[in-house]
Amino acid sequence: MKKYTLLFILNSFIATLSFAQNLTLELDKVSDLRDEKKYTEALGILDSLIAMDSVSARLYFLRGSCYHYARQPKLSMESYQKTIEMDSLFKNAYFNLANGYERQNKMDSAEIFFRKYITLDSTDSDAYLRLGYTLRGQGKEDSVKYLYDKAYALDSTNLYAIYTLAQEYFYEEDYSKSQAFIAKGKALETDDISFYVLEGALESAVGNYDKVIKACEEAFEIDSTDFDLNKLYIESVMLKKTDPKKICKIDYQNKFVDYNNSNLKEVLAGITEEDYNQYLKRVKAGEILSLEDYLRFYLSQKHKKGFSPYFTASNPNIEKYWKEENFKELVKHDDEIFNTVPLKISELFKVCSAHFALGNITEFRKYYAVYFGILEGIIATGNGTEFESAYLVVSASDEYEVIYYMGLNSSSQALVHKDEHSYDILTTAYNDGEEKDVYFNIDIPMENLHASFTETDKKGKKKKKKRKNK
């Protein structure tokens, strides 16, 4: 009997050892399949393994990972929850659950699981950063900075911690500390574009546009296709050329020029069709103008023959290829946008977006500078909060481009005549639902419309000569 008992124990041991060896091989196979994005096959193997061992936390965790990469968040979260049921000390399951809740914008739940993770591993620098992000997402600012400092104290080479603190000090306008963290980040990771962008933003905030341009040019050697970097470069070249003493006040920190002053009428009166022709020649050549010049170019369109703010058709080629996402064909018609007066800002956006998607950075900069300059020029004419500070536009359709650019959505529009001026008031809202009325001065398009109707009436009133009978 003892002999059979020993034999049974030995067979059980061999079977257990064999299962463990096979399990290791199968899990390696699952990991390979996951890395190859063959999620269905990987999940099939995991389901069969769980059928044989339904209490293995490791199996549920790996299944959660596969579901995550297969973009099935609900099943992924359920698997991570099951992992914790099997092993309450399985720390990575807590981290991944926190990450999942953060993706769902459930910051309170994310906070709970990040805190649980930290109780199991108090040395993970990234966990403190992520907890800080979730607290900020809930408006709990009290301990956010402490958590960022804690993350840096745990790992002073953590690039995320360094960048986060550089950003924090930038927002606090403590530029010397921000610059110190930026310098450290650049020294640790010479190819990280984000530190160059932040450095450029810092120098821009204090009006050092030459330094911004230098930082951008250095970063272009690493990656000339980064959008934020190109935007910062274009903006800085533009603002470097903008003379705040010429006709207006300027707030360099917000990068908006305030044209809402007594000189505006003089500016408008002094613009001619020749200005339009000169500016058009320069922008078509790819020159980045000053913000003031982009505004003058925008306003000078009203003097161009054929100016029609209410009856301008879209370019059929650009519309067609944009819908088809055929950017190679679309950019063949890029120069055609200048044939439309006034320029359609939406078509400018499509052209520069197509060039960026194709990696045509020189052409992207050319068209994006016009797009950015015109919109910032419009925004520079006021603040849009009341009649007296309404944004000045040459076409009603430009109103919608402005509000989209500002991150707003329109729900209604009202035409108002006040003190011999015409205004559009757009009721808009941010994505969070907060409503905002935005005022636009539409004297230019209304004057053109009135002139068109007057000309039509004159033609209609001309008497026809009666034919005489022979």
TrEMBL record:
Which Pfam families does the record associate with it?
Answer: DUF4919, TPR_8
Q: Where are the TPR repeats?
A: 91-124
Q: Does the keyword Signal apply?
A: yes
Q: Which domain of life is it from?
A: Bacteria
Report keywords, A-Z. Repeat, Signal, TPR repeat
Stretches that traverse the bilayer: none
SMART domains listed in its UniProt record: TPR
The residues the entry assigns to the signal sequence are 1-20
Instruction: State the protein's name.
Output: DUF4919 domain-containing protein
Q: Which organism is it from?
A: Flammeovirga aprica JL-4
